[in-house]
Design brief:
elongated; alpha/beta; Elongation Factor Tu (Ef-tu), domain 3; Bovine Mitochondrial F1-ATPase, ATP Synthase Beta Chain, Chain D, domain3; 461 residues; 12 helices; seven-stranded antiparallel beta sheet; 3 domains; 21 strands; Rossmann fold; eight-stranded mixed beta sheet
Length: 461
């Protein structure tokens, strides 16, 4: 039985307040019928005795305390799911906006979901190929992992996200699809995403959700939940390997801060709510694999660090929850390196168990360790050169500087359309390491060096 209330008690921002409400449930969907014949949707966000606060998705403009009939539906927010959602474009609440009509659901599912029970989790194995050397070789994306990209305002994270969608695939050719959720983006950016996928002919394996900057913040808060519900259906019901890209989580967190302020909650660090950690965890922990179930949900949340500050609450808390990070570097961006991945602070904590023999190549781990160690020494040589000048460096340091320039220009830097195979990436890594004397490669055993090192004989003295 639907419960109807003829008047509101108050309106504050996007919140409408009612009193005398019995048996309301948190996250329950509410329909608001205005006297002008229009209808708006809201959800219960706060219950205090018989007083209920409802967040209105479309905003409260035009709503007064006397012109609204409120109906409690008794249901949470749900999204229609069926195989036909692949190739479709939806708004942030999962409603079709591509002009192809409504989805005929195979099932309807609550978008709030739940993190995967740790007992039923399967340890992530195998990798997702992105075609981007800096990721594939040095911070490999593993199926079922959550691996965020930390970027900065104005950097090329949108281009990187598009390239990953265009090129990502599973190595064994199993069913693979992408759920792409954009939050708080401008119209031109949304059109860029959409047209890029269509031009690359990958839209058939993409489910796209677009929440625009002028859309209500409550829609932005629900967008990642809708995206993850779609991903869980495709992964664990349709048995596909799903990559979820969420951009930009900073827009999401700022919407959460605004919403928290409108409820009068006590703010935490930099005004964000004290529950930001648990809220982000409730999203990120929906990635993974389930024992006995074919399929996986892999997450790449993308966030822009305010003022490039990696200690800001959003990247800071994200780093605690996720299994590594990919960090974009503004200095590399200024040099014209694309993608400007800073490989030294970047890491993938699950990489060791998803690469090597049977997955990528048996020399992958050794090569990765040696590339990172050598590039770290390049930074020391650069610091010394900034003091005494490059001409005064030792012969070994000059070789390191030469290696560093080649590493940035040939390994890190690659065309937006260049899709490198894993073998191409690893072979290029050995080619660059062969610029250094064999005695400087101290992270690789002799047997592996005998097989892959291509340096000149005199360089081994």
């Amino acid at each position: 039985m639907l419960i109807r209330h003829l008047k509101l008690n108050g309106v504050n921002g996007s919140l409408a307040t009612l009193s005398g409400v019995d048996n309301a449930a948190n996250e329950e969907i509410v329909k608001l019928h205005l006297t002008d014949g229009t209808e708006r949707t809201g959800r219960v966000v706060q219950i205090n005795g018989d007083e209920v606060s409802v967040q209105v998705f479309e905003g409260t403009r035009g709503i007064s305390m006397a012109n609204t009939e409120t109906v409690f539906t008794g249901k949470p927010m749900e999204v229609a799911l069926s195989p036909e959602i692949l190739g479709r474009v939806f708004d942030g609440l999962g409603r079709p906006i591509d002009g192809l009509g409504e989805v005929f659901p195979e099932e309807v599912r609550d978008v709030n979901g739940a993190p995967i029970n740790p007992v039923s989790r399967e340890y992530p194995r195998n990798y997702i190929h992105t075609g981007i050397s800096s990721i594939d070789a040095l911070a490999t994306l593993i199926r079922g992992q959550k691996l965020p990209i930390f970027s900065g305002s104005g950097m090329k994270h949108n281009e990187l996200a598009v390239q990953i969608v265009r090129q990502a695939s599973t190595a064994d050719g199993s069913d693979f699809a992408v759920v792409f959720a954009a939050m708080g983006v401008k119209n031109d950016v949304a059109q860029y995403f959409r047209s890029s996928f269509e031009e690359a002919n990958v839209m058939r394996r993409v489910v796209m959700l677009l929440n625009l900057a002028n859309d209500p913040i409550v829609e932005r808060i629900m967008t990642p939940r809708v995206a993850l519900t779609i991903a869980e259906y495709l992964a664990f019901t349709r048995h596909m390997h799903i990559l979820v890209i969420l951009t930009d989580m900073t827009s999401y967190a700022e919407a959460l801060r605004e919403f928290s302020g409108s409820k009068g909650e006590i703010p935490g660090r930099k005004g964000f709510p004290g529950y930001l950690y648990s809220d982000l965890a409730s999203l990120y922990e929906r990635a993974g694999m389930i024992k006995g179930v074919e399929g996986s949900v892999t997450q790449i949340p993308i966030l822009t660090m305010p003022n490039d500050d990696i200690t800001h609450p959003i990247p800071d808390l994200t780093g605690y929850i996720t299994e590594g990070q990919i960090v974009l570097n503004r200095d590399l961006d200024y040099k014209g390196v694309y993608p400007p991945v800073d490989v030294l602070p970047s890491l993938s904590r699950l990489m060791k168990d998803g690469i090597g023999k049977g997955f990528t190549r048996e020399d992958h781990a050794d090569l990765s360790n040696q590339l990172l160690a050598s590039y770290a020494k390049v930074q020391d040589a650069k610091a010394l050169a900034s003091v005494i000048g490059e001409e005064e460096l030792s012969a070994d340091d000059k070789l390191l500087m030469e290696f560093g320039r080649a590493f940035e220009s040939r390994f890190l830097n690659q065309s937006f359309t260049e899709n490198r195979s894993m073998d191409q990436t690893l072979d290029l890594g050995w080619e660059l390491l062969s610029m250094l004397p064999r005695r400087m490669l101290d992270r690789v055993d002799d047997e592996t060096l005998d097989k892959h090192y291509k340096g000149r004989a005199e360089a081994t003295a």
